[in-house]
Amino acid sequence: MSEQQVLGLQEVDEMQVAVVGGKGAQLGELSRIDGVRVPAGFCVTTDAFRRIMAKAPSIDDRLDQLSRLNPDDHEVIRTLCAEIRRTIEGIAIPDDLAVAITRALARLGEQAAYAVRSSATAEDLPAASFAGQQDTYLNVVGPAAILQHVSRCWASLFTERAVTYRLRNGFDHRKIHMAVVVQQMVFPQAAGVVFTADPVTGNRKVATVEASFGLGEALVSGLVNPDVYEVRDGEVVTKAVAAKLPALTDAQVVRLVQLGRRIETHFGRPQDIEWCLVNDDFQIVQSRPITTLFPIPESGDRENHVYVSVGHQQMMTDAMKPLGLSFWQMTTPAPMAEAGGRLFVDVTQRLASPASRAGLLEALGRSDPLTGDALQTILERDGFVRLLPDEGPPGPLFGGVPAPIETDPAIVTELIGRSQASIAALERDIEAKSGEALLDFIQADIQELKRILFDPQSHQVFMSAMEAAWWLNDQLQAWLGEKNVADTLTQSVPHNVTSEMGLALLDVADVIRPHPDVVAFLHHVEDEGFTGELAKLSGGREARDAIEAWLGKYGMRCVGEIDITRPRWSERPSTLVPVILGNIKNFEPGAGPRRFEQGRQEAWAKEQDVLERLRALPEGERKSEEAKRMIDRVRTFIGYREYPKYGMVSRYFVYKQALLKEAERLVQADVLREKEDIFYLRFPELHDVARTNHVDDQLICRRKDAFRSYQALTPPRVLTSDGEVITGAYRRDDVPTGALGGLPVSAGVIEGRARVILDMAQADLEAGDILVTAYTDPSWTPLFVAIAGLVTEVGGLMTHGAVIAREYGLPAVVGVVDATRLIPDGQRIRVHGTDGYVEILP
C-alpha cells in the first residue's frame, strides 16, 4: 500500500489530478513531452494526505465552521486555520509512508537539495489557478527535513489565503486534497517565466519572456525587476533589459519561446511556464494555464476576425449560462459567436467593405466611443483587416433606413396592444404543453417573438425618435450654442414602461409607509415567500396586494434579464425589499406623480424657451417649426424605445416558467438531479433530453465549472481572432487633469456622495447620492428615483440607463473605465453630464 502513496514524476500524467494534485499532474505530463526537461522528482499522493486527515477527527468540526463563514470573516478564519495547521503538523507520518518517501529520496540522492512543493487537487486548473495559495519550500536537505516539510505542505492547504480563496470561488474544503511534489533543486545561471500569450493584451501570437540571473523565486515573488522580451513570429520584437547585461541572448529567448509553444500545443491552451537555464539547457519547473485570458470565439478558419461585444451594447456584461446564450442566439437575426459565456458579433466583413465600414464606425462610435476607437485602431494597422476596394457611398449598418413615420400617438398604443395580446395568447396556449411538444411549441413561438421584436413599424417608431433626438442636439447646439438640449426635452414622456416601473415602486412605498408593523417586518425579510406572511400584520393585506400587483406588471424583469436563466423579481421578490425600504425612508407620499409632473413641466419650459430663442434668429420661423416637429416626434415616440425589450423579456419569462415545470417533471423522473440543470444545456440539447429522457451529467458538470471560470473574466469591448483585447480611448483634450473621462448621456452637473453598488439587493441610498456601478440595464431603474446622478463603466447614448437618466433628469456619464475601482465608495464626486467627465473632489 505504501508504494502507491509515492509515485515518480515519470509515472504521472495530467489525468491524475485527483492523485497528485494540479502541480504534480502538470509536472508529470511535462516530463512526457518530447524535448522538455523537468528536474527529477516524485509525488506523495493524496492517499497519504487522506490517511493523515483521518488521524485527526477534530478537524471535521473546524471544517464545518469554515464552510459556514463569509470570506471577509478574517479573524475567525485565521484562528481556525492556525488550529488546523498545528493539528496536521503534529501528526506523525506513518512508518510505511516515511519508508516509501525515504526510499524515493535514496534513488535520487539523499544529500541533494530539494524543493518540496504543495500540489492541491484544485490547483493549476483551467478554471482557477490557485496560484500562490499553498506553500513551497526550497533547499531542503536530508530525509528528516523532507518529511517535516511534507507535513508543512499538507498543512498549507489551510492557510488563511487558501481558505479565503476557496470560499470566494465556491470550492468545498472537504473535496480538495493535498499531494506534495519533491523535486531536485537546480541552480541555474538564469531563470524566469514565459507566457505563451501576452498576459496584458491577450494576444496569442505574442509571447512574453521575463528573465533574471540566478533562481527564479525572487522574480516570481516580485523582489527583482526582470528583463522583459516580446517575441512574435520567431523574432524578438521588443525588449527591456533591467541590468546592463541581459540574462538571455535573443537566440536563447527565441529558443525558449519555441519550447513554450511546444508545451502550449501539448496542453491545448496558453501557458504560464517557469523555467531555469542550466548550462545553456532550459529546464521546466512548472507550467499552468493562464486563467485570466479571455477565450477566443471559434471562427472555423485561419482568417483574421474582429469581434464586438454584444454585452456592452445590451448593458449586460456578466457571463450567461448556455440556455441563456442559446435563447439570445435564437432571438437575434445577426449571427453571434460565443466565447467566455458572452456573445460577440463578427464585424470583419463590415470593416472590410467601404460601403458598410463608415456606417459601422459611426453607429458604434456614437453609441460607445471606446468601441468605435478600438475598431479604428485595428483599421490603422497594416493588413489585419483586408480592405476591399471602394464600392461607392457608405450603406446602412443594419437593413434599410426606416421610412418617415407620422407623429401619431395612436401608433404606439397600437404596437403595445398587439404585443400584449400576443403574450396573453402565448400564456394561454403554452399551459397544456409538456415534453418534446413544449420545446417544439417554444421554438415555433420564437418566430412570433422575432416578428414582433423586429416589426418594421416598431423599428420606425424608436429610430425616428432617436434620430429626432440627435437632430435636436446637433441643430440646437449649432443654432443656439447649447449642448444636449434633447436630454431635458425627453423628461417624463408617455409610454416609457421602464421609467414608469421606477415611479410605480414609489407608489408601493406609499401604500406601505403608514403601517409600521409592515415596515419593521420588511427590515428582516430573508425568505422569498414573505408576501404570504404579510396578511397577518396590520396593513399587511394592502402591502401584499400592492407588491403583488407591481410584480404582476414588472416581475419578469431582473438584473441581466437578457439571460433567461437569471432569477426574476417574481422568483426572488426579496431583491426589491431594500429598494422599497429606501423609498419609504427617502421620499414623502405622492413622490411618484410629483416626480413625473416636475419632469414634464421642465421639458415643457425648455421647449418654450428653445422655440422662443429660435424665432429670434435669422430664418427663425422655419427653424422653430422644424424644431417643434422634432420635439413632438421625440416626445411622442422616445418612450416606446423601452417597450420592445419589455415585450421580449415578458415572453422569455413565460418560456422559463414552462421550462422549469418541465424540468421538475424530469427531476421526478430521475433524469435530472435538479431543475436548474437545464440552464447548462443549449436549447437543442434540452430538446433531446425532453425527447429521450436521458441527460449527460458529465456535460452539465463541465458546463458548471466553465461558467464559474467565466464569471471571473472581464469581457472586452473588441476582441480579435489573435485573442488581443483592444480597449479603445476617448482621445479628448477637454477633460481636466485627474478627472475620469466618459460619454455624456444626460445633461447637467451634480455633486454628491458616490455609492459604489455592484448588487442591487445591497443598495443603501440616501437622498442626493450618485450611483456608481458597472452597468445598468432596465432592472436598475427602481434605484434611479432615489439618486442625484449616475456613473457607469459600460453604456451608450441610447442604452436603457441613459434613456431613463434623461427622462428622470439625472446628470449621467457612462463608459467610465474602471469607475467602480477608481471611485471609492463614499467619496464626494462631481458628475459633468453635459461634458462627459467625473471629478473626484477633495
Short synopsis of the structure:
Helix content is 46%, strand content 14%. The protein has 31 helices and 24 strands. A hairpin with a 4-residue loop joins strand 15 and strand 16.
Labels describing this entry:
31 helices; 842 residues; alpha+beta; six-stranded antiparallel sheet
Chart the SSEs and their pairings.
Elements: E1 6-8, H1 17-30, E2 41-44, H2 46-54, H3 58-67, H4 74-89, H5 95-108, E3 113-120, E4 136-141, H6 143-155, H7 160-169, E5 178-184, E6 190-195, E7 206-213, H8 217-220, E8 227-232, E9 235-240, H9 250-267, E10 271-278, E11 281-289, E12 306-309, H10 310-314, H11 322-331, E13 337-339, E14 342-346, H12 348-352, H13 354-367, H14 369-379, H15 409-430, H16 435-453, H17 456-480, H18 485-489, H19 497-512, H20 516-522, H21 530-534, H22 540-554, H23 577-586, H24 591-615, H25 620-637, H26 643-668, H27 683-692, H28 697-711, E15 718-720, E16 725-726, E17 740-741, E18 743-746, E19 749-756, E20 770-773, H29 781-784, E21 789-792, H30 800-808, E22 812-814, H31 819-822, E23 828-832, E24 837-840
Parallel strand pairs: 19-20, 20-21, 21-22
Antiparallel strand pairs: 1-2, 2-5, 3-4, 3-5, 6-7, 6-10, 7-8, 8-9, 10-11, 12-14, 12-15, 13-14, 15-16, 17-24, 18-22, 19-23, 23-24
